[in-house]
Design goal:
The chain has about 130 residues and is an alpha+beta fold. The protein has helices at about 5-15, 80-85, 90-100, 105-110, 115, 125, and strands spanning about 20, 30-35, 40-45, 60, 65-70, 75-80. The strands form two sheets. The chain has a three-stranded antiparallel beta sheet, covered by helices on one side. The chain has a three-stranded antiparallel beta sheet with strand order 4-5-6. β2 (about 30-35) and β3 (about 40-45) form a beta hairpin. The longest helix has 12 residues, at about 5-15. The two termini are about 30 Å apart.
């Protein structure tokens, strides 16, 4: 089996039969499966083998006021300075839009030998 997520679903489904469940939101990261007996569901997140970058709606704000547009971002965007200099809510929203709208983060989709050598921000630093 070449996809670990499929193997997880197959192994669980062999003991407790599963069927695909509809996504609750278009930006959902987990592929969901419902137990056929109605006892619940599971979700499998496979960002490496089944990336979901195109539908990502997650940003992270570090304790130092840096906005990260990808869990695997190399650097964040400074929001602390505008906050400390008295930016209004509208100005902060505009600053966030200026960073978010043109973003091209697709680390999981573009993962290659070259991206493996890039410095990474620790997940604990940005709430991963």
């Amino acid at each position: 089996m070449d996809k670990p997520a499929a193997e997880i679903v197959e192994r669980i489904g062999a003991v407790w039969p599963l069927e695909p469940a509809e996504a609750a939101r278009p930006d959902e990261t987990a592929r969901r499966w419902r137990y056929r007996d109605g006892a619940g569901e599971i979700g499998v997140i496979a960002s490496v083998t089944e990336p979901f970058c195109g539908g990502c709606s997650r940003a992270r704000l570090s304790a130092e006021g840096k906005l990260f547009t990808c869990l695997f971002a190399v650097k964040g965007h400074d929001l602390r300075e505008p906050l400390r200099t008295g930016a209004s809510d509208e100005e902060l929203a505009a600053a966030i839009r200026a960073v978010w709208t043109p973003r091209t983060d697709r680390y999981s989709e573009l993962r290659t030998a070259e991206t493996a050598s890039l410095p990474k921000v620790e997940m604990s630093y940005i709430g991963g």
